[in-house]
Every structure is written in structure tokens, then in C-alpha cells.
């Protein structure tokens, strides 16, 4: 695994223009942004999108909806998290700006400087090995450099304090990006495009109605910029704490673990971190802050420990599929949307996929799986496989009514676009072809309807408008896929299952 910041500028540029870096999501295989990114890059031809926009007042930052927002719900109720598909013309310009050789060299040198303090940074975005997945690589990195490193530090320290940043991406102050790249004083003294950090800041604001609070979530490029700002915070923390080694700080993205020999010392260190985070618009969350004198136990997520127990004992001891699903349901209620739940759901899918006889309680089983999806919508890709298998066991004439009940229940979940994208995959599959109607624009595009993802009203160039044709994101049809998903579609959940 190679850190992206260690790549040459041209290699980094080519990598960041890949669709899995543009938006790191587990969309079905027939959805891809590769063609749009390639066509937009060809039209821009290393020029910025600003060369292709209309004159004032019709500029991008004067308009809403320039980026496309897809909101994911964490609990099926009010725990909403927005992800953004950055306008491709702005995204390509951001990549071009960041990866211009001089700028990239400056960024590399700056990261080297910022990462030289008292905080051990473990979450920088990595380039996967050939054939590997971006998300899976990050899971492996988290396990190796954060969880395992934490366990190792139990040899040296007796206390641990864990905390994280509340709404990290949504609260990041965009002007802190040039501060992080060029230094606070230099950036405050020069607000022009002479400093490429100001250009990056401007492009982000131009895509978000001029907002300075918050950055888009969902792309590897923005992950790099967020890591840059957090590394800048690390540098400020190091200046205040200097090289006093009666503590150790691990940071994985916006998660902090402070190791010390007393609760008091750990709390003192966290207060310094909190003070420095406020400088860039961030704050620590009280809800996830905890202290412990058992570093080994505290270093492993509770849901992982519970998942190991359920995987090794509870599910195997449940003699019927309904009992197994009920135990999975109980786990989902306690640890919704967790990585451990994804893994357990995938294991259940693989086990249930071997069933050949329709169970007498099939409708009950379908109801239980649906309710798991309600409380843990992020798990739906794995759950969709279970639903597809169960409903395939029902009499042919009963299947449409079952899918209708499933889709009706799923559509009651607010902001469930990501879930509906996967629901469309299983309801429109070969031999199923249920008439699933969704208000999610990506689903409508897959269904052949003409809808917009990005607001292009600020663009003057007809060539760029043509390059942005959203029909290009559909590179296949759900009708060509098997009704029961092939295991490779859910490979992420098992590729690094032992680590999550």
C-alpha cells in the first residue's frame, strides 16, 4: 500500500481522476462516472472550468445545486449524513490544480513538515494494490496502523482517552486549507491565486453556493484536503505540547486516541487538541469521548467484539434461519450501520444462498430482514442479497407482492437514496423486473428518464454540457444481472472481514 501523497504528480492525477476516487461508494456495477470524468477532462484540456462559464452574474457560486447531494441515513430516522458528487468540471479542475507539479511538490513538502510532530498519523488515503478496492485498503490500514498499534501501546501506557471530531467535513472552515498549505500568516497576507491553496478554497466554495463552512464528503481528493487541515492542527498541537513524551497520540482521520499514565494527563492533552481544532472550525464530540484503564479492551470496537462472539457462537447455535435473523436483528439494533454488521450480514447471505426449499415462515424472514435495513440502511447491499434469495424461494405469483411490500417499507425511510439504488438493482434484475419507481435521480437515470444531477446553468460551453450528459453514468442494465447478486458484488464486506 502506497500513500497517495508519495506518488509522482502525474501518477497522482491519473489516480484521482478514477471514478472510485471521484466518489467512493459501493454503487452497483452498472453505474460508473468514468466516461463523464474522461470526457470532461478532454473538453477542459488542462484549463479551469472558469474558462467555460457564463459572464456575471451567472457564475457557479451564485447558484445552488452545483454539486449533487445524496444523503445517507445512519439509523433510518434522524442520523443523516450528506455525501456530494462534486460537479465533474469543478472536480477535474481541483485535480488539475492540486496535481500541477509545482503545487504537488509543495504539498508533499508541507505534509512532511506537518507530520513531524508529536501526533502519529495513521489515516492518510492510500493507493490500493492492483485489483484492490479503495475502501478495503483503508479498512486494512485502520486495522494495521490504528487498532493494532493501539494494542501495542498498551505495553507502554496505562490509560487511554478516545474522542473524535463532530461533523468533521461539515464544519471544516475552507479558508483553513490555504492556512494549512502555506502557513497562517502567509495565507492571511495574500488572498490571490498566487497561492494555489486560495484557488482550491475558491473552487470548493464555488461548488457550494459560496459557503466557507464545510467541504464535500465522498471523494478521495477531499479526504486528502481534510487530512491536510487535520495535519495542520496536529502541527499546532505539537507546538503547544512540544516533545514531552509522557503521552502518545494516535490519530486516524478525525478519531483521536491519547495514551498516558493518568486520566488527568490524557485530559490535559485532549484540551490542547480541542483548542487547536477550534482554530479551523472544528470541535470534539462529547458523545464519543471515553476513558479507560484497560487499553486492550478499549482499543477494540465493542461491535467488533460482539460480532466475533455472534459469528463464532450465537448464529451457529441458532437452529433456524428465523432465529439467526433475529440475532442479526438484535445486533443491528445495538450496533447499527457498523462494519461488523456488514460482515455478519454478508456471512448470512452466503449461508442462506445455499437454501433450496422455501421455508414456511418466509414472509416472517423477509419482514425481519427489512427491519434490519430500516435501522441499518448502510447494510442494505448485503441485505438485498438475502432478500433476493428469500423472495426467489416464494411461488412465482407471490413474488411481485413481496417485492411491493419490501419497496414500500424501504421508501418510508427518509433520505434513503443509496438504499434505493441497491433496491433497484435487485427488483429490476433478470427474471424479477418488478416495476420499482424511485424519486432518487440516479435510479431515474438508470430507468431511462431525463433528470439532472448537477446544476449546469452557469456553463456557456456546449461541448462541456455534452460531456456532462448524465446518461453516460449507466454502463449496463440491472435487467442483465442475476436476480441473486453474485458474491463478487459484495466482495468488499469479506475482503477484509477479519479486520473490521
Strands, helices and their partners?
Layout (H helix, E strand, L loop, with lengths): L1 E2 L5 H8 L2 H4 L11 H11 L23 E6 L6 E6 L2 H11 L2 H14 L4 E3 L4 E2 L6 H20 L5 E6 L3 H4 L4 H7 L1 H6 L6 H11 L13 H22 L6 E5 L2 E6 L2 H16 L11 E3 L2 H5 L2 H16 L3 H14 L4 H14 L9 H14 L4 H13 L6 H12 L6 H11 L13 H6 L15 H6 L23 H5 L5
Structural class by helix and strand composition: alpha+beta
Q: Tell me what portion of residues adopts beta-strand conformation.
A: 5-15%
Mean pLDDT: 90
**Main sheet overview:** 5 strands, mixed
Radius of gyration: 24 Å
Short description:
The chain is of the alpha+beta class.
Supply the key terms.
single chain; 500 residues; alpha+beta; five-stranded mixed β-sheet; 9 strands; globular
Question: Can you walk me through this structure?
Answer:
By secondary structure, the chain is α+β, with helices and mostly antiparallel strands. The chain has 23 helices and 9 strands. It has helices at 9-16, 19-22, 34-44, 88-98, 101-114, 134-153, 168-171, 176-182, 184-189, 196-206, 220-241, 263-278, 295-299, 302-317, 321-334, 339-352, 362-375, 380-392, 399-410, 417-427, 441-446, 462-467, 491-495; strands at 2-3, 68-73, 80-85, 119-121, 126-127, 159-164, 248-252, 255-260, 290-292. Strands 4-7-8-6-9 form a 5-stranded mixed β-sheet, with helices on both faces. A two-stranded antiparallel sheet has the order 1-5. Strands 2-3 form a two-stranded antiparallel sheet.
